[in-house]
């Protein structure tokens, strides 16, 4: 019997793969057999080296995902890199922190454009490549604990990640019958650039760790198993789910 978790022969498009969660997911997919196309503004040289060392092909498509007009051309270039695309991981994200009374329209738009608007239009462009050809595919959106909770001082981030959860379900409803699985991973508190401010705040860091049953911040590698599962044939009957990988945070 073939391995249902194998990604041999697949090509995965991963946004924001230059560091943190995106880098960890890209490497996990490569170790499972996928070739990787990184989409994003920043140079993913370190990720490319790790993917090639894992024996897989790697390409980079430069795109500013804060500009929605970049989505379609970026996906077209990504498919052209290795002649196909099977998996899309919408990981790229940003965050702005300020009290709700002071939150600016600029900070609102900057976060919503990258975290939610680009997710929809990248997914649309990806599906437009697959549906006319009758080919299956997998889309994995990166949600958040703030897809379930409110948080503080991150108004646009909370709104965007709540939107990602809803959009995941909507796209699953529309595209499951077309052979495209749309699901999301909701990371808990992970040691990445986006959480640097929280980890540097002694009190907040202590409070967060006290609530995590696993007793530690997550690392990007902790998301690898969930990403491989949702990218593989093992999840062919999984549609519209938001899978929490949170060290037990939501169970507390």
Q: Calculate the terminal CA-CA distance, rounded to whole Å.
A: 39 Å
Helix fraction, binned, reads 40-55%
Uncertain parts: none
The CATH architecture classification is 3-Layer(aba) Sandwich
Which percent range describes the beta-strand content? 15-25%
CATH superfamily: NAD(P)-binding Rossmann-like Domain
Per the CATH scheme, the topology name is Rossmann fold
Radius of gyration: 17 Å
Mean pLDDT: 96
Quickly name the level 1 CATH class.
Alpha Beta
Spatial arrangement of strands, main beta sheet:
3-2-1-4-5-6-7
What is the total number of structural domains? 1
Count of beta strands: 7
Coarse shape: globular
Structural class: alpha/beta
Q: How many helical elements? A: 8
Give the ordered list of helices and strands.
EHEHEHEHEHEHHHE
- Main beta sheet strand tally, sense and closure: 7 strands, parallel
